[in-house]
Design brief:
By secondary structure, this protein is an alpha/beta fold. α1 packs across α2, α1 crosses α3 and α1 packs across α4. β1 and β2 form a beta hairpin. It folds into 3 domains: about 80 residues, Arc Repressor Mutant, subunit A (Orthogonal Bundle); about 90 residues, D-Maltodextrin-Binding Protein, domain 2 (3-Layer(aba) Sandwich), CATH 3.40.190; about 100 residues, Periplasmic binding protein-like II (D-Maltodextrin-Binding Protein, domain 2, 3-Layer(aba) Sandwich). The protein starts with 8 loop residues before the first helix and ends in a 5-residue tail after the last helix. The radius of gyration is 32 Å and the shape is rod-shaped. It is built from 11 helices and 12 strands.
Length: about 300
C-alpha cells in the first residue's frame, strides 16, 4: 500500500472512534455527521482489509489489528499536530540564512556598515546580499522571493506589500573647498549661478531638488548626469561643479575629499525612506528579526 493513495484524514477518524468507543460521540468530536464517520470507517476497512472495530450494542470494540496499529498512529498524529502548531524558531547566532536586500548605492553606505558590524558579533554565519533593483521591479522581486526586503523612497504599492518609514534625511549641497563663488555661505542666487551634477540611474528626468526649484519657477544648469554620488563627489573635488545629495551619505562620502557641505538654500521636505517586504513574510521570524534590526541600526534622523 502506497502512502500517496491514503487519505490521512481517515486515521483521524480511526483515532476518534478508538478514543470515544462510539460512532456518535466520535462524529461530535470531529464536528462531522454520523454518516460521514461511518463512510470514512468503511473506506478504511476496505483499505486495511480488516474490520477494525466490532459493534457491541452502542460500543465499537477495536480488533487486535486496531490495537496494534493505534499507538504508532496516535504518535504520528500528535507529532504532526505539534509540528503544525509549533511557532517557527529563528536563532540568529546559529543561522546560516542568506538575506537578499534591494538597496540603492546611496543607502548601502548607510545600512551595510552598522548591519555587518552587528552581524559579526551576534549572527556571524548569516550572509547579506545587497541587490541593485529598479523601483518598478521591487514588488515583483518581493513576491517571487528573489529579495527579502527592499529600501527605497515612498511609492504606491499593492496590498500584498507591507512597508514602514525607516529613515529621515535632508538635502545638502557639496562644493569643493575654496570654491571661488562663495566663502561664508551658499545662498539661492549663488546656487543657481553655478553648474551642477545630477545623480540618477535613469537616463533622464528631474531630481528632487529640481522639483523644488520648479515649484518656484526656477531652474539650474546641469553639466553632468552620473549614476553614483561617490563619483559625483570626486568630480566636485576637482572642479567648480556642485552636487545636491542626502546629508548622511554626503558626510560619509566627502570625508575622503575634504569637500565643503552647505545647507540646501531652499526649504525642502525630509527625504523619507521606506522599508518594504511581502505580507507573506509578516510572521516569518527571520524576516521579522532583520526588519527590526535594520530599523534599530539605521539612523532615524539627523
Amino acid at each position: 500500500m502506497h502512502i500517496n493513495r491514503v487519505d490521512l484524514n481517515l486515521f483521524i477518524v480511526l483515532d476518534a472512534i478508538y478514543r470515544e468507543g462510539n460512532i456518535t460521540r466520535a462524529s461530535q468530536k470531529l464536528h462531522l455527521t454520523q454518516p460521514a464517520v461511518s463512510h470514512a470507517l468503511a473506506r478504511l476497512r476496505e483499505l486495511l482489509k480488516d474490520p477494525l472495530f466490532v459493534r457491541q450494542g452502542t460500543q465499537m470494540i477495536p480488533t487486535p489489528y486496531t490495537r496494534q496499529l493505534i499507538v504508532p498512529i496516535q504518535q504520528a498524529l500528535q507529532t504532526f499536530e505539534q509540528s503544525v502548531n509549533q511557532e517557527p524558531l529563528f536563532e540568529p547566532f546559529n543561522s546560516e540564512r542568506r538575506f537578499a536586500i534591494g538597496l540603492r548605492d546611496v543607502l548601502e553606505a548607510t545600512v551595510l556598515p552598522p548591519l555587518l558590524q552587528y552581524l559579526q558579533q551576534h549572527a556571524p554565519s548569516i550572509e547579506i546580499a545587497s541587490i541593485r533593483i529598479n523601483r518598478n521591479d521591487i514588488e515583483t522581486e518581493l513576491t517571487s522571493g528573489q529579495i527579502d526586503l527592499a529600501l527605497d523612497v515612498p511609492y504606491a504599492v499593492s496590498q500584498q506589500i507591507e512597508h514602514c518609514p525607516l529613515k529621515l534625511d535632508q538635502l545638502v549641497v557639496v562644493a569643493r573647498q575654496h570654491h571661488p563663488a562663495f566663502v561664508e555661505k551658499l545662498d539661492l542666487e549663488n546656487y543657481l549661478a553655478q553648474r551642477h551634477i545630477i545623480v540618477s540611474s535613469r537616463r533622464k528626468g528631474l531630481a528632487l531638488e529640481d522639483v523644488e526649484l520648479n515649484r518656484m519657477g526656477l531652474k539650474r544648469h546641469i553639466t553632468l548626469r552620473c549614476q553614483h554620488y561617490f563619483a559625483a563627489c570626486k568630480v566636485v573635488s576637482e572642479t567648480d561643479l556642485l552636487v545636491t545629495m542626502p546629508e548622511h551619505y554626503a558626510r560619509l562620502a566627502n570625508a575622503q575629499f575634504a569637500n565643503h557641505i552647505w545647507p540646501f538654500p531652499l526649504h525642502s521636505p525630509q527625504l523619507d525612506m521606506h522599508l518594504y517586504w511581502h505580507k507573506n513574510a509578516n510572521k516569518d521570524p527571520a524576516n521579522q528579526w532583520l526588519r527590526q534590526l535594520i530599523h534599530q541600526l539605521v539612523p532615524q534622523e539627523n
